[in-house]
Specification:
Blueprint: H1 2-13, E1 41-44, E2 50-55, E3 59-62, E4 73-77, E5 82-90, H2 95-107, E6 115-123, E7 128-136, E8 144-149, E9 154-162, H3 172-188, E10 190-191
Antiparallel strand pairs: 1-2, 2-10, 3-4, 4-5, 5-9, 6-7, 7-8, 8-9
């Protein structure tokens, strides 16, 4: 299985990387101080085909906009009015389509982005491969997105959004803080065989 995953990973790593040039612009002054909690995590290990660790100050719920997708979820950061949207799909010889759809979701932010920094995610031990997109720009709606896959069965996508008017200069400390939590999510992700788990529910 691992050998096949590594072979399939070639598809992902040959995928077109997105890059933009950075442009300097002075930042406004006088933003309010934001008190940030200490990073701490707990495990999400349910009947889902994946498990991970997430912050103790975050809350998990099913995706209300896609009730038919039982393995989709929202990880809410109430203190910051932020949500990490997680979507999951099973691969059936359609990995290229999922990759292209995800690329389009990143590209649509280019008009308001100063730069898009992409980085490969390669972890053969966990059979996790993917890409993370750090999207810079004061008016960018989603400053961080990522995709993860084993190239054979599992495909997961995450995107961070705020329920406020985009002003990522003032939100910069919060964005940096949540990025660390997202990286922890990525580093602790483990795939599970969904089997016949048709009654999967979020454990709140």
């Amino acid at each position: 299985m691992l050998k096949k995953g590594l072979a399939g990973g070639v598809i992902l790593f040959s995928f077109l990387l997105i890059s933009c040039h950075s442009h300097y612009s002075p930042k406004p002054r006088g933003y309010f101080r934001i008190d940030l909690p200490k990073h701490a995590y707990r495990s999400f290990d349910s009947t889902f085909p994946y498990r991970f660790s997430y912050p103790v100050y975050a809350k998990i719920s099913n995706d209300p906009l896609s009730p038919e997708q039982k393995y989709w979820m929202d990880i809410h950061f109430p203190q910051f009015k932020a949500t990490l949207h997680i979507s999951y799909r099973t691969i059936h010889h359609n990995l290229r389509k999922y990759l292209e759809d995800s690329r389009k979701m990143v590209v649509k932010h280019i008009p308001k982005a100063n730069a898009i920094h992409d980085s490969l995610i390669i972890d053969p031990k966990r059979n996790v491969f993917g890409m993370a997109y750090d999207i810079e720009g004061s008016g960018v709606a989603s400053p961080y997105q990522f995709i993860l896959t084993d190239s054979i069965r599992h495909f997961l996508r995450g995107s961070l959004y705020f329920r406020v008017e985009p002003n990522n200069d003032s939100l910069a400390p919060v964005i940096r803080f949540i990025k660390q939590d997202i990286r922890h999510f990525i580093q602790t992700l483990q795939w599970e065989n969904p089997g016949n788990k048709s009654t999967a529910k979020i454990q709140k």
